[in-house]
Amino acid sequence: MIHMLICKSILDLTKLFASIKKNFEVLDKSIQAEIYFLNRFLTDSELDK
Amino acid sequence: MKNNTTMFSTEDKASVKAWNDYIQKENLEYTKDIYDKVDLLTQLVDSLHTEDIKTEEWLTWSEPMIYKLVFHSSTLLQMFYGTRIYIKQKAVTIFDEPSVIMLMRVVLENYLTFFYLFCDNISVEEKKFRISVWKYCGLKQRTEFNISTIEAKEKQAQELLLVEEIKKEIGSSIFYLKLKKDEQSLLLKGKKPRLFYSWEKLIRISGLRRDLFKNLYGYKSSYAHSEFLSVLQIKSNHYGFKKKIKNIMYYL
To answer: Do the domain assignments include residue B6?
Structure first.
């Protein structure tokens, strides 16, 4: 949960600050993908049990 | 709700895989991966300073909010390295699961407050109102502390003026005027920092999966308040330090 909340916070910040979005987008693509997918696991209602 | 895994999209499957890959790891190996993400989060927030990014006053509060999240998360991760207690002057390393669970609740509430104040899909004006209410409740609470030193009394007098100023600002807000009379009264008593949103409602509006958090929330609350369940867990478990504790992986 901690891991996913940290990932979601990172993505939330990219929406709040254009400069953070820019810095996030220059990260290694595999890191970006991992953060995106962990956030998706945390938030995707389709995965509700 | 989907019972057949073949119905999941490619992205759904990738997200499940990302999670499954992590929970196969030992606790300490996994904490290192999370520390890396915490480091990244800190670097991104810090970039606002290093790049001298100018933001509106209301938005500046998001930064300490994230640092608070970083502090609690880091302390929680540190606990996975074991807590030392002394029995007959001999050091014993235990895994303090009740404190981990309690801190997890703090981290979750911190995140939900961050989302509620800064990220919810509402107008900037409404966000500013929420932040004013949140500040008002915090400061009002502090002005009600019993204090004795002259210095503290002077500071409290200054804060009382600030509280009154924010109170006027709140009172003239369209969002305040939309509330029912009894809600307005409760708000001005300074007891509703997140207005009338329960934690469960905040889980819903922040888009977190309710199946992951809803039940866990009540469970974690019992640890914070020393309810019977939390003591029962200690009575029935051994808190020896282990490399991989499966049931606790979900908090990481």
So the answer is: no
B61-98 b/e (C-beta count within 10 Å ≥ 16 → b): bbbebbebbbebbbebbebbebbeeeeeeeeeeebbbb
Q: What's the gap in Å between the CA of B98 and the closest CA on chain A?
A: 16
The residue in chain A having the minimum alpha-carbon distance to the alpha carbon of residue B70 is: A6
Query: Is residue B127 in a domain?
Result: yes
A26 or B1, which is more confident:
A26
Distance (Å, whole) CA B251 – CA B31: 11
| Interface with A, mutate which of B5, B112, B212, B217 (most A CBs under 10 A) | B212
Closest in B48, B73, B104 to A17, CB measured: B48
> Could you give the C-alpha distances from B223 to B21, B227, B231, in angstroms and in order?
29, 6, 8
CA distance A3 to chain B (A): 6
Distance of residue B64 Cα from the nearest chain A Cα, in angstroms: 13
- Asked, for residue B14, whether it belongs to a domain, the answer is no
Number of structural domains in chain B: 1
The interface pTM score, or ipTM, of the predicted complex is 0.94
pLDDT given for residue B1 in this prediction? 45
Q: How confident is the model at residue B6 (pLDDT cuts 50, 70, 90)?
A: low
Nearest to A9 among B30, B66, B104 (CB): B66
